[in-house]
Amino acid sequence: MNHFMQSARLLISDLASTLLFLAVLLITKDLILAVALGVGLGVIQIGWLMARRKPIDTMQWLSIGLVVVSGAATMLTSDARFVMLKPTVIYCIVGAYMLRPGWMNRYLPPIAVATVPDLAYLFGFIWAGLMFGSAALNIALALTLDPVTWSATMSIWGIVSKVALFLIQYATMRAIGVRRGRAATSPRTAAST
Fold this sequence. Notes:
This protein is mainly alpha-helical. Helix content is 84%, strand content 0%. Helix 1 packs antiparallel against helix 2 and helix 1 packs antiparallel against helix 7 (147-192).
């Protein structure tokens, strides 16, 4: 359970500025306030990591860069489409990043990396597929919905799809990892008796 919580914390941390933006937009319907708070949280997260001399992952730099650029464009032009289309850019870049073998190891405990590396490799591509599919969905919704409806729809899709895949991956990797671990120790136990 400890490994599950660590992975969940990393995922929530990576999505924090986007989740704050969406929550504020849904609650207040104030686009500028939502953008400002999302950008602010992203900058604070990076500053906190830098102050603590913690490594900052490429995806974290990319996320904050896109939040700042699209947020600034939205605030300067008062055109919500900059913020509404930003997730498409993020999804595509993240999807491309997720095509790189081994990207998922940051989120996995060492035992999973050792026991089920093939599943981590496979789920890396499944995550990439989810990102590319979400990018396409976001384009369609950003060009057809108002900001509040778009925000609600993409919030639900983004959270539910990622949590569902996360839980499916966790359950699958854990079940197969435990089975493989038992199979690896069974011959040794039988040989020693």
